[in-house]
Amino acid sequence: MASPILFFVLLAFIFIAALASDPSPLQDFCVVDTNSQVLLNGLACKDPKIVEANDFSSGELHIAGSTSNPIGSRVTPMTAAQIPGLNSLGISLVRIDHAPWGINPPHTHPRATEILTVLEGSLEVGTALSQRCYRRVMCSYSVFPIGLIHYQRNVGNESVITIANAVFGSKPQIPSDILVKAFLVDNDVVNHIQSKF
């Protein structure tokens, strides 16, 4: 027969574990006040009495981004800077335009899950997991779980911080000896990749 103390300890542990979650926002919305001089961890809120409908929308997502760059894609972010009503909600939007065979290089989102919707064309999407790459061609939507490395490539003919930019294009540069050990390549390869950025 189990001890009553052990039973209550287990019950308390289950109760505490069940309460673990992100806290709810303190208010319904916190539209960015771009004129505020207040410095805090985040963006200051506009007085709710002067919030407007335009604070919750943007007309910028319909504008195609230029894909005339080495990777053949353009990521257009929509954060609280573009849509003030997104402030403190923990979400953002992006539009990704791909040239034919353009890519969105391998990258990760350490604090968010990505839901990708294809509006036109076909994308090859890949997710790296446990030293395996899972890929498929999609025309609808895909989910990339939080923290997993993933990429997209336009496999049709219609026209975010990436790992490569962050690692090989950082200023100041990450020391070459660290990159040589991390990627198991020689120093010439690291120098060649860094020269592209």
UniProtKB/TrEMBL annotation:
Disulfide bonds join 30-45. It is found in: Secreted, Extracellular space, Apoplast. Pfam families: Cupin_1. The keyword Iron does not apply. GO terms for cellular component: apoplast. Residues 61-191 form the Cupin type-1 domain. SMART domains: Cupin_1. The keyword Signal applies. One of its GO terms (molecular function) is manganese ion binding. InterPro entries: Cupin_1, Germin, Germin_Mn-BS, RmlC-like_jellyroll, RmlC_Cupin_sf. Oxalate binds at residues 104, 109, 114. Keywords: Apoplast, Disulfide bond, Glycoprotein, Manganese, Metal-binding, Secreted, Signal. Residues 1-20 form the signal peptide. Mn(2+) binds at residues 107, 109, 114, 150. It comes from the Eukaryota. Belongs to the germin family. This is Germin-like protein subfamily 1 member 7. It comes from Quercus suber (Cork oak).
